[in-house]
Structures are given as C-alpha cells and as structure tokens.
Amino acid sequence: MKAIVKTKPEPGAELLDAPEPQIAPDQVLVKVRATSICGTDVHIYKWDPWAQGRIGQKRLPQILGHEVAGEVVQVGSHVTRIKVGDYVSAETHIYDPGDLTALLGQRHLGEHMKILGVDCDGAFAEYIAVPERVCWINDPALPPEFATIQEPLGNAVYAVLGEDNDVAGKSMVIFGDGPAGILSAGVARVCGATQIFLVGRSPITLEVGRKMGADHTLSLELSPEERISYILDHTHGNGADIILEMAGNPQAVSEGFKVLRKGGRFTAFGVLSSSEMTLDYNNYLVFKGAQVYGINGRKIFDTWYRASNFLSSGRLDLSPVITHLLPLEDFEKGFQAVLARPRNCLKVVLFPDQNELEKAKKRRTSDVR
Ligand code: ZN
C-alpha cells in the first residue's frame, strides 16, 4: 500500500510501497478515506529534538499521521462494538484501561497511554490498524475531510468548555492563530461566548478566525500594552472571563493572566519550547483566584460526542479551516504549506484515493489549494 514513512533519523519523509498492517485481536483495519496533517506530524517530519527523544532511531521506519476518517474493512477476533463497514475516526490517545486515570474516567491522561502515529504506525497510508477502544463511529453523511478534523476539533471543544462547561454569556481571549485557536473561535461562538478576542500573527488566519466567530482580532504587531488595554476597554475594565493559551509562548501566558478577570479561568493548551518560565504567582494565581486548567487531548468520548454533533447539525462549519485538499502523494506540498511563514495554511487534508479527493473538491464552495 501507499504510505508516507519516516525512514531515516533526519528531516523529511518518503512515499513508499509498504506492507498492509496486520491487525491484533483487539484492532480493526481501516481503509483511509481522509487524513490530515497535525503539529505532531510536523515535529516528526522535521525530526526535531522532541521527535528524536520520543521516537528515536530504533523504531524507524514508521508511518506518520494520526488524524483519520475511513471505513472498517476487517475486525480482530476480540472486537465486538465495531463492525465491518462502519465509518470511523480514531481518538489519538490509545489509553490503557488499567491506568488509574482511566479507571477514574480521565482516560486521555493515562500513565501508559500510547499515541497513534507517534508510538505506532499512523494514518498517512491506504490502511491503518486501530484498537477498537479508540474508534469513534461517524455519521455516514459527514464528509471525510471534516471527519478527520474531529481530533483537533476535540482539543478545541475541550479547551473552550474546560471542566465546568461554563461558557455561555462569557468573554474569551484566545492566544494563537493556528488550527487550535481558529477552531476554538468557532467552538466558542457555538457554545455561546458573547465576546471572542483572537490574538495572532497572520492577517490571513486571523481573517479565518473572524469567519469562524471571533469578534475582535488583535495582531502581534500591536504592543502588548495596546492589546491589554483594548481587551480591558471592551470588558468594562474587568478583563475576560476565560483565557485560552494556544500559542505556546511565554509572552502569551503572561499577557493571558494580565487580561484574565479575577476569579476567571485560564486554560493552558499550548506547549512552550522551554518548560521553565517566570510568572507572577501571587498576583496571577493566588490573589486573582484563577482557575487553571491544563488541556491534554480530548475527553474520551465526551468531546467526540459534542464535536461530531456540532458538525452533523451544521451548527459548526469547518470549511474555512480546511485550506488544502491534496492527494496523499503530495504530502511534501502539504508539509511545506504548514511550515510556511507568514502562515496562510490551517488544515491540510490528504486523500489516498483520487476519487475521494475529487468528491471533496466538488463539495467546496470556496477556494481551496
Ligand atoms: Zn492532531
């Protein structure tokens, strides 16, 4: 089968003819209809220090990718819930049911959790083997280019709703104009946030953020003081109820706490390139009475349920976020688009089958590359 494979411990990946995966008794074989490029794939593609440490040389060759939508064509002998013919997507966090967190219902945080496309072969191929327990059955009417985006959409749903689902009628500042930030603007809008501020660098993606639901876009060309006073001016001097840090930037973390109102919620999603940073602990956390939520993954399957309902109902349209529809063979073009700065690319969807690609292009009403 066609597959995009990391073969060598260096930047890049190759299109190869790889053997079809053999499924274990608890796995299903999925014929990939659509798959999409995520930041994690970019780390592996670039072979940066994270990828070197996490995957290492020994496990290569490995197929990239984890965001997927496809049809189940074979099920293992222990599989009971999923049937041949089901149209599925996959939760990336392959949880270990025996972990304490899994037993407590926080399956996405397990000590022995494995990640699809990172700890095992991924979805940038014609077929992928997926454990039954992480399969989510899609609405057959949901186009595969949307179904594959449910994984990052789930991050946005979890980040926006937090642990208390208390968003309606509240103001929110989102730092970061990558896919997570832009998807979050859309989710915040449908969840009833009444003022949505989006902070980012690229005029193109900020404009998509407006289309998705941001009321105010704040460029990084402004000074931090200008952005802070803009947000305070528009929140009666109180600051915003909810902050989403999706830029992975220490400056955004500090700025986020500065514009958080007392008693508000700070949501930490972005990963900093260096873990250590200084923070005014007393004023930002203690005296502010801040609630701080770390978001790692999606609630399994609460956020899948909500994300898929947002899409099926038509309440949320992801079209503006899908900027590229490409054949799997053109993965290099996809990675170059994701890496290009200033950013003009959000989600790149790859199709192993040319017919699926043609159908997806026909469904588009707006321009796509
Ligand atoms: Zn992803």
Overview of the molecule:
There is one protein chain. With 369 residues, this protein is α/β, with parallel strands linked by helices. It folds into two domains: 2-149 and 318-368, Alpha-Beta Complex (Quinone Oxidoreductase, Chain A, domain 1), CATH 3.90.180.10; 162-294, Rossmann fold (3-Layer(aba) Sandwich). The protein is built from 13 helices and 18 strands. Helix 7 (203-212) links the parallel strand 12 and strand 13 (216-219). The mean pLDDT is 96. The structure holds zinc ion. The site of zinc ion (ZN) has 6 residues, from helix 5.
Q: What is the helical fraction, as a range of percent?
A: 25-40%
What does the average pLDDT come to? Answer: 96
Ends: how far apart? 26 Å
Kindly provide the radius of gyration, computed on alpha-carbon positions and rounded to a whole number of angstroms: 20 Å
Number of helical segments with 4 or more residues: 13
Topology, number of strands: 18
CATH superfamily of the largest domain: Medium-chain alcohol dehydrogenases, catalytic domain
Q: Tell me the domain tally.
A: 2
CATH class of the largest domain reads Alpha Beta
Q: Helix and strand layout, with pairings?
A:
Layout: E1 2-6, E2 14-17, E3 27-36, H1 39-46, H2 49-54, E4 62-63, E5 67-75, E6 87-90, E7 93-94, H3 100-103, E8 114-115, E9 127-131, E10 135-137, H4 144-147, H5 150-161, E11 171-175, H6 179-190, E12 195-200, H7 203-212, E13 216-219, H8 224-233, E14 240-245, H9 250-258, E15 260-268, H10 281-286, E16 291-294, H11 302-312, E17 322-327, H12 331-339, E18 347-351, H13 354-363
Parallel strand pairs: 11-12, 11-14, 12-13, 14-15, 15-16, 17-18
Antiparallel strand pairs: 1-2, 1-4, 3-5, 3-9, 3-18, 5-6, 6-10, 7-8
The structure holds zinc ion.
Zinc ion (ZN) is lined by residues 38, 40, 66-67, 151-152.
